[in-house]
Amino acid sequence: MSVRKGIILAGGSGTRLYPLTIGVSKQLMPVYDKPMIYYPLSVLMLAGIREIAIITTPQDQEQFRRALGTGAQWGISLTYLVQPRPEGLAQAYTIAEEFLAGSPSCMVLGDNIFFGHGLPDLLALADAKTEGGTVFGYHVADPERYGVVAMDERGRVTQIVEKPKVAPSNYAVTGIYFLDARAPDLVHGIRPSERGELEIVSLLEIYLEEGLLDVQRMGRGFAWLDTGTHASLLDAGNFVRTLQLRQGMQTGCPEEIAFARGWVDAEALTGMAAQLSKNDYGRYLQGLLTDRMMEG
User: Fold this and answer.
1) Which cofactor does it need (predicted)?
2) Who's near 216: CB < 8 A, 6+ residues apart?
3) Is the pLDDT of residue 293 over 80?
4) How remote is the C-alpha of 92 from its chain's centroid?
5) CA-to-CA distance for 31 and 11, rounded, in angstroms?
6) How far is the C-alpha of 271 from the C-alpha of 53, rounded, in Å?
7) Which pLDDT band, with edges at 50, 70 and 90, does 226 fall under?
8) What is the pLDDT of residues 279-289, one digit of tens each?
9) Cβ distance 240 to 32 under 8 Å?
10) CA dist., res. 53 & res. 192, Å (int)
């Protein structure tokens, strides 16, 4: 079985966040103490994925390379791909086709933030499925704003629809997609929508018609935040700040995940902590080392 690879879609023009994003990619904007992209990157790392492609606009790619490097500092490998024009979420699979090279994938949208103690378990359940696709549903008050997934009494997906006038359920489809190795080939057979885009819903409908689309429901203990507007970006930053100050633990911290999984050793973490020693982030990393020494 091929090892699952990751995709972060971090393209787009970010016009809803102008003037903030005129000179800086939306996915590099700060969400409290970290660049936004750290959060989807952390989701992939929590899923155990170490080969990750980051899809950016041509003009922003160098900024991402400077911010994230090769990924080696976290024990992962980052590949950078270009999205010349934003032509739908499903376009990511054709852009990443050579990178995937026949492997199954997990794609995370670069402006989505997830939090929840049970998130690694849900990701593991989705990763264990070798055929078909899995989406993650989150209960929202305004489902008409999102892609919506409907389920029967046994939790099987019966319908998936984009921004319905009358929603068949309150479960929005979040920005995490686990798909098998066929995804790029299937996208090649999709016709663009009326707005000229390769819609992710069109791709998911193929899996649904085959009876191979599952949904993992994110319950009350989870948070899913979109950062597409000025207000939601501020809300996300305040959420992360409140959570971290209250718990004394980081959220979306690649260094911590890499260390916990054994992808980097104490010496490597010491070096990363030293680079950030003038702020609370660096002191948190140093605290991880101290805790490990006390446990040992």
Assistant:
1) Mg(2+)
2) 122, 125, 126, 134, 135, 136, 137
3) no
4) 13
5) 18
6) 25
7) confident
8) 999 999 999 99
9) yes
10) 24
